[in-house]
Design goal:
- It is a single chain.
- By secondary structure, this protein is α+β, with helices and mostly antiparallel strands.
- It contains seven helices and 15 strands.
- The protein has helices spanning about 5-30, 55-70, 100-105, 170-185, 195-205, 220-230, 255-265; strands at about 40-45, 50, 75, 80-85, 90-95, 110-115, 120-130, 135-140, 145, 150, 160-165, 190, 210-215, 235, 250.
- The strands form three sheets. An eight-stranded mixed sheet has the order 4-3-5-6-7-8-9-10, with helices on both faces.
- It is globular and about 50 Å long.
- It binds D-MYO-inositol-1-phosphate and calcium ion (CA) (2 copies).
- D-MYO-inositol-1-phosphate binds near residues 195 and 217.
- It comes from Streptomyces phyllanthi.
């Protein structure tokens, strides 16, 4: 092993340990301290795009731990955490993905933490406390759910695929997303709307969904789950030939990815 690759390995291991600790602590806090009368602290893009006091507290817990362990790193968090950094490492954090599920007491929510080095995601951790599952991946080293290797299912034909998706918070975007689903649903096995993009991507990784797509995600929604899905054998991307982006995120095993991505492109899933 060269000095450089040894250094990369050591950094990957260090970042993974920190991401696991931060996600585990934030997830336990969200699970154990959820107030019975949890209310909405503020709204973001629309009246249904909610943030609770717990989203904010979870982000503070995570950024506090990161500042303590790696003070020179950059941070991008959904609830406003923004640190420039000068180490080449940037943390991309969704302190509570699936806020609406959490607000209503539904179990599908997670803490999502990714580490990027020079812009490339090298570590992804998604902790879903009410599933008792942590999904994790290090670039080039495979994906795991708890301590078991995560693997996508073999690709079915598009007509037999169980496909997850999600809807944004803006009314005009949701209306277009509903049009796409209306066209797609007779052409696949069924559609699922789980309510956490990070978990959806991990569900592709562990074979609980055949595929997943959504328009309008932000890096904190997909950074960790994208790496977990890819390391579990999925392909991910946006429009054909393009990387995944806020315009469109698609994930599925090879053989399903291509026809799903092509179909979504024809249906205009990438625009409002
Ligand atoms: C949302 C969830 C949801 C997806 C939305 C996201 P939030 O994140 O991931 O499944 O459909 O696009 O914004 O607001 O719960 O962190
Ligand atoms: Ca989110
Ligand atoms: Ca969130």
């Amino acid at each position: 092993m060269t000095d450089q690759s040894e250094q990369r390995d050591r950094l990957g291991t260090e970042l993974l340990e920190i991401a696991l600790e931060a996600a585990t602590r934030a997830g336990a806090f969200l699970r154990d301290s959820r107030p019975d009368d949890l209310g909405v602290a503020a709204t973001k893009s629309s009246a249904v795009d909610v943030v609770t006091e717990m989203d904010i507290a979870s982000e503070k817990l995570i950024t506090g731990l990161l500042a303590d362990r790696r003070p020179d790193d950059g941070v991008l968090g959904e609830e406003g955490a923004s640190v420039e950094g000068n180490s080449g490492v940037e943390w991309v954090i969704d302190p509570l993905d699936g806020t609406v599920n959490y607000l209503y007491g539904l179990p599908s929510w997670a803490v999502s933490i990714a580490a990027r080095v020079d812009g490339e995601t090298v570590v992804g951790v998604v902790y879903a406390p009410l599933r008792g599952e942590t999904y994790r991946a290090v670039l080039g080293e495979g994906a795991y759910v708890n301590d078991r290797p995560a693997r996508v299912r073999p690709a079915p034909a598009l007509e037999l695929a169980l496909v997850g998706t999600g809807f944004g918070y803006l009314p005009h975007r949701r209306a277009t997303q509903a049009d796409v689903v209306r066209e797609l649903i007779p052409q696949v096995r069924d559609i699922r709307r789980g309510g956490s993009a990070a978990i959806d991507l991990c569900d592709v990784a562990v074979g609980r969904l055949d595929g997943y797509y959504e328009r309008g995600l932000n890096p904190w929604d997909y950074a960790a789950g994208d790496l977990v899905a890819r390391e579990a054998g999925a392909l991910t991307g946006g429009r054909p030939g393009e990387p995944l982006s806020p315009d469109l995120t698609v994930a599925a095993p090879p053989g399903l990815f291509e026809p799903l991505q092509a179909r979504l492109d024809e249906l205009g899933a990438w625009h409002d």
